[in-house]
Design goal:
With 256 residues, the chain is of the alpha+beta class. Helices cover 20% and strands 32% of the residues.
């Protein structure tokens, strides 16, 4: 199945280091070679890059490795197709508008017999179970709350209910963000690390590359990295429990 990567932080930060290791799993250190994508929130806008080529062979992926785009929230995905052909329209992450803001979504897993009735603005362009799940999520949120985005406690509770409904159909590891918070749900495998002061050196697991974060950060910076499997060999990663939904704001998981 696919792999997921997300970043949530309290100051605009680039994801070059983490994405470099992650992209190697798209055809070099792992077999996720059926496309990839990444989305960066910048203010009210989103920079969105997808490619049906393997991340390890994609010139666009090389651009992302070299171009330090700074963002508070980033979602990336490398694809190993289970439903839907290898095509640009089936590459994650997917982007839609709700409540006057962009939402970005990516999924790792395989949903069986998941055929919700979708109408209005929330209909899939491609033919993946993942895009159907995203459209279902947004359609249900719109039906529950109408034109007004709810406060975080109500939104979190609604998303928790909906991901549990979807997860009855199979594996549903997912990332979802509106640019202010990062929602991450684990069916089988997700983990995270929070990088904060005092910063230390980190070493990638998939590439002979390390960075001393104390040289490129300030004492006030805080960055949460959420990923399918740990990206580094010398940091302490916290595993999600199966069925757990976490919400990250300003580089930190919110308490219940």
């Amino acid at each position: 199945m696919c792999q997921l990567l997300a970043m949530n932080c309290n100051v605009p930060t680039d994801i070059v280091f983490s994405f470099t290791g992650f992209a190697h799993r798209g055809g070099r250190t792992d077999t996720h070679h059926d496309g990839w994508g990444i989305a960066f929130f910048e203010g009210a806008g989103v920079r969105h890059f997808v490619d049906h080529q393997a991340a390890i062979a994609s010139p666009i992926a090389e651009l992302i490795k070299q171009y330090p785009i700074k963002s508070l929230n980033v979602i990336a995905h490398i694809r190993k197709a289970t439903q839907g052909q290898v095509a640009l329209e089936n590459c994650h992450p997917f982007v839609r508008e709700l409540w006057g803001r962009y939402w970005v979504f990516a999924h790792n897993g395989d949903l069986k017999d998941f055929t919700p009735v979708l109408d209005g603005p929330f209909r899939p362009v491609g033919n993946t179970d993942s895009e159907r799940a995203f459209c279902f999520l947004l359609q249900q949120l719109r039906e529950r709350f109408g034109d007004q985005m709810p406060a975080m406690p109500a939104l979190r509770a609604a998303i928790r209910d909906l991901v549990h409904v979807i997860a009855r159909h199979g594996t549903f590891n997912m990332m979802l963000s509106d640019g202010t918070a990062m929602f991450a749900h684990c069916s089988t495998k997700l983990c995270y690390v929070v990088r904060r002061y005092p910063f230390t050196q980190a070493c990638l697991a998939d590439e002979d590359l390390s960075v001393d974060f104390s040289q490129v950060t300030t004492p006030n910076d805080r960055v949460a990295i959420i990923v399918t499997t740990p990206l580094t060999t010398n940091e302490t990663w916290t595993e999600f429990a199966p069925g757990e939904l976490k919400v990250f704001v300003d580089g930190w998981p919110l308490s219940e």
